[in-house]
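2024-03-11 09:14:02 INFO worker-7 job=invfold-0412 stage=load source=structure_tokens
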């Protein structure tokens, strides 16, 4: 799956500007997260079914936009499950660069993972891929 990442100067209204640009153009956001850093940078992670259109809209609005491939991982919501997945990746020589939860329903979580090697990761955690 592709994720869109917007990198911009941290300021009040960044999230409003990003979401308004997409909303005005009929782009539905499936999942979004925002993080800021002490060096005044804001990073917005966006998942949408309209990735290409969203990228064009945000770039035309003046945002720096990059896309990346992430793995969607489905796991049971129980203690130690994330450790199991992490260990499988570690044993395969794959590092986790970014991780966050996209959804939680009943006893299951869906996580987005950026890794140092998606091909190796897919083999290592095949049973967990959503």
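2024-03-11 09:14:09 INFO worker-7 stage=emit residues=130
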């Amino acid at each position: 799956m592709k994720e869109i990442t917007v990198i911009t100067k941290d300021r009040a209204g960044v999230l409003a500007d990003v979401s308004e640009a997409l909303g005005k153009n009929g782009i539905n956001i499936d999942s979004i997260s925002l993080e800021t850093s002490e060096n005044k940078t804001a990073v917005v992670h966006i998942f949408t079914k309209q990735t290409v259109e969203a990228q064009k809209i945000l770039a035309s609005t003046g945002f720096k936009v990059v896309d990346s491939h992430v793995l969607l991982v489905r796991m049971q919501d129980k203690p130690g499950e994330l450790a199991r997945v992490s260990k499988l990746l570690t044993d395969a020589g794959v590092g986790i660069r970014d991780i966050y939860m996209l959804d939680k329903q009943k006893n299951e979580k869906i996580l987005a993972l950026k890794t140092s090697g998606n091909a190796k990761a897919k083999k290592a955690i095949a049973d967990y891929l959503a």
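2024-03-11 09:14:09 INFO worker-7 stage=report msg="The domain at 71-128 is CATH 3.30.70.260 (Alpha-Beta Plaits)."
2024-03-11 09:14:10 INFO worker-7 job finished
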